[in-house]
Amino acid sequence: MEGPKAQKMVGIWLFGSAAWVFSMVILGGVTRLTRSGLSMTDWKFTGGLPPLSNEDWLIEFEKYKQSPEYKIVNKGMNVEDFKFIYWMEYAHRMWGRGLGILFALPFSYFLRKGYVTVRLGTKLCGLFALGAGQGLIGWWMVKSGLEEPASEYAQPRVSPYRLAAHLTSAFVIYSGLFWTALSVVMPEPPAESLAWVRGAAKVKRLALPASLIVGVTAVSGAFVAGNDAGHAFNTFPKMGDTWIPDDIFDLKPVIRNFFENTSTVQLDHRILAMTSLTSIGALWWFTRKLDIHPAVKSLIGATVGMAALQVSLGISTLLSYVPVSLGTAHQAGALTLLTLMILLNHTLRKPSASLLKSLPQVVKTAL
């Protein structure tokens, strides 16, 4: 990279792209919670123009009327109600295509200017490919919801496996962009003494497994959404009148229960959520007396607070029967907690050999 100016410009672009993906995830959550995701029954690479006349709207509405969701769930819906769910899904799709433009044009410019190294360029090409594939994963997911349900009593919905793949892919893209942006603007971690470096290494051994648990918990939330399991039991801490529902192993083979049984899916998510909170709390407890950089201490404190808030949001969403506002806030909270974990792990990186050689044993303090 050519210097501070290039570093700053590329960093701003990557942080902006990461923020765009964050907003995409939130918009996708709103689209799902308003049950708008199956309103567009076809897919075009460029997206195409929305209906511009009453005749165009009637054509799109007739296509939707052929879908299982209309026949089973929304029969009798008028065209004005259809417009709302259509615009939600159209906005989500076009927001994704907008991200492609936001990423590709500056990338081409920075390549020509020589602001991007070969190593960084390779990483960014990989992230761009993931972003392009995300659109295909999204349509693959939606297509599953346009198929006739296995039972006449089942409501049409997308495959929970495909929804989980779509959300996980979004999380991977966001994490990759955010980590890369941090690496551009902060090539070295904050380290002013060898004592702080050793302290950071001890924190990292606890932060990595906690981060993994947070990631698994977030993905399990996709199965809660995909199975509509948030409405299975709207009580806490018990599930109805019991701690563990009787039907948690009703599906055969048994492994299906963890991904398709609404009772088990919600129970799993509850257990993982409390495990995430406990692991982050343990991270704070066991590192509170370590000699570590103030930035690391602040990040651990912020992460504990965010984890507690996220669990509170989850419980409130559950008890309120999953309203759009709280459901969206809960999804945003999951990504915010993941952001803090990424930032913490990035700050805990080991400094380069050249920086290590220049560090004193302890931080010198003024008398």
UniProtKB/TrEMBL annotation:
Enzymatic reactions: Fe(II)-heme o + 2 A + H2O = Fe(II)-heme a + 2 AH2
Membrane-topology annotation of the record: Multi-pass membrane protein
Protein's cellular compartments: Membrane
Domain of life: Eukaryota
Residue intervals passing through the bilayer: 12-30, 94-112, 124-142, 162-185, 206-226, 271-287, 299-322, 328-348
Swiss-Prot/TrEMBL cofactor(s): heme b
Keywords of this entry: Heme biosynthesis, Iron, Membrane, Metal-binding, Oxidoreductase, Transmembrane, Transmembrane helix
Coiled coil: none
Main location class: membrane
Pathway(s) served: Porphyrin-containing compound metabolism; heme A biosynthesis; heme A from heme O: step 1/1
Signal peptide per UniProt: none
HAMAP family for the chain: HemeA_synth_type2
Protein's name in the database: Cytochrome c oxidase assembly protein COX15
Species: Salix suchowensis
Upper taxonomic lineage: Eukaryota, Viridiplantae, Streptophyta, Embryophyta, Tracheophyta
